[in-house]
Design a protein that fits this description.
GO terms for molecular function: nickel cation binding; zinc ion binding. With 87 residues, this protein is an alpha+beta fold. The chain has one domain: hypothetical protein PF0899 fold, CATH 3.30.2320. The chain contains 2 helices and 3 strands; from the N terminus they run αβαββ. A 3-stranded mixed β-sheet has the order 2-1-3, covered by helices on one side. Helix 2 links the parallel strand 1 and strand 2. It is elongated and about 40 Å long. 23% of the residues are buried.
Length: 87
């Protein structure tokens, strides 16, 4: 359930940023995966693909950075680093 909550929150942020930019399509997403987020890049990709299906983020290229620092204040989360869009 933790992962579903993280993805829901992340997709809301991604779509909000895209909407504010007037984007018609999200072409790339870059994220930082906290050490305690319980996400590997492959696992994140699976969850992202499900969450993005039918949205302007569907098919976006993904780039992930994985932290191993369990003491980082964001260790339990996924942070949005950037998105690329088409108008």
């Amino acid at each position: 359930m933790h992962e579903a909550s993280l993805m829901k929150s992340l997709m809301a942020k991604i779509l909000d940023v895209a909407e504010k930019e007037g984007a018609k399509r999200i072409t790339a997403v870059e994220v930082w995966l906290g050490a305690l987020s319980h996400m590997t890049p492959g696992h994140f990709r699976e969850h992202f693909n499900v969450a993005a299906k039918g949205s302007i983020a569907e098919g976006a290229e993904l780039a992930t950075e994985v932290s191993e620092d369990i003491d980082d204040p964001n260790a339990e989360t996924i942070l949005l680093k950037s998105i690329e869009t088409e108008e």
